[in-house]
Amino acid sequence: MSQDAFDAETYLEATAAAMDIIIAPDWKPAVLDNLIRSRQIAQAVLNFPLPDTVEPASVFKP
After folding, report:
1. pTM
2. What is the pLDDT of residues 17-44, one digit of tens each?
């Protein structure tokens, strides 16, 4: 999916309906901004090239 293909408002409405939550109209612009920024951050991580020799991390134990 390209950056342009992401429709944050449609995604917000679909996920809010699936989770049966109501987003207050006053909050909607902030939630949409957060979704857009979160996707940009995730895209940067997903686009980071990794060599085929990289092994998965071991189990984290605090």
Report:
1. 0.68
2. 999 999 999 999 999 999 999 999 999 9
Distance CA 1, CA 6 (A): 7
φ and ψ at 60, to 5 degrees?
-80, 130
Of 15, 7, 8, 2, the residue nearest 35 (C-alpha): 8
Are residues 12 and 35 in contact, defined by beta-carbon separation less than 8 angstroms? yes
Return the axis-axis angle of helices 8-19 and 28-46, rounded to nearest 10°. 110
H helices of 21-61, where? Answer: 28-46
With tokens 């998965």, the residue in question is 56
Q: State how far the Cα of 44 lies from the Cα of 47, in Å rounded to an integer.
A: 5
Instruction: Supply 2's token pair.
Output: 């390209």
